[in-house]
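pasting for ref
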Amino acid sequence: MRILQVIEPSGGGSGRHVVDMSAALIDDGHSVALAYSPLRAEPGFEAGIATVPFTAVEQLPLRRAVGPWDVSALKALNRLIAQRGPFEILHGHSAKAGALVRLAHAPGAARIYTPHALPMMGDAGLARVVAGAVEWTLARASTDAVIAVSTEEAAVARRWGLPKDRLRVVPNGLAAPPRPDRAAARRIMGAPDDALIVGFVGRLCRQKDPLRFAKAARLAQQCNPRLLGVMIGQGDLAAAVASKGGAAVRLLGQADAREMMAGFDLFALTSRYEADAYALIEAAALGLPIVATEVGGTGRLMAAGARIDRLPVDAPAEDLAQAMLAALARPPRLCAGATLPSAAQMAAQTADIYRRAFQGRRLGG
């Protein structure tokens, strides 16, 4: 099939999803082109797409915020489709790219949307209501399939009235298992051998709630001086996190967490919401004990054998600190990594959705 992948937040979990799935689709014989926004592109994403044999890679400046600039962005996407197409599948990743893909002029193409965390999963307020109305309208008017990456995200979609007959669930899959070399990971982090490392991986932004992690690590260190919070990621809350955590937290900035996670003694996820976080999946694949808020993907990972202590999404830092200390105090036990889907399986499931959607589009004229 001839497929166009379009993404606005070119990085993080959604960027990794696009890179890994596109590579697997191409390995299966599909023709895949990519349009991505350079405005929020991360170096790791651009390095990743350089290794994938796309038929075309085009930069499409998309802003995260909604505004009059989206008219120009839609025109640019239409020109790209006319020049590089025709395509049988247009697949938009994240809310902005998903909206533009479903509004684009591409006769005969099936329109697929993967939100990577629906905007209705965020904080309550007018913005969430407006987002829900937009998602409902686009899903019913011009969407052949909405792909949720967890059952929890799919449940949110159903609550907001997205059509059940067009809703599918395809969890994120790993292209390669994380590196299990604990000694090498500790050397990269520069961590003391006797430290009890509680790791955090993610953007330092409100959604991930790194301030809650930093406070919890500081409180836990007061009870166990060996504990050290190590945070991998960057974002606008970096300075506030450093102040909140003090000596209990070490910020490593943007780095390849896959090289370091094996050096953790415990993985902690403090997000307010998630669809299916890659960092959580990799921690489970390594067999790390995990303390996490009850967000998307945790149920699936626990069913697959992951050791997760779940707390409410609004749990205070004090409760998180106690959960960290309790998890670290348990006798270590041998635990194989959770059995999880691969990127190839993720791509195969997605390709099946593509075929059914395109067939339905053709039968419907």
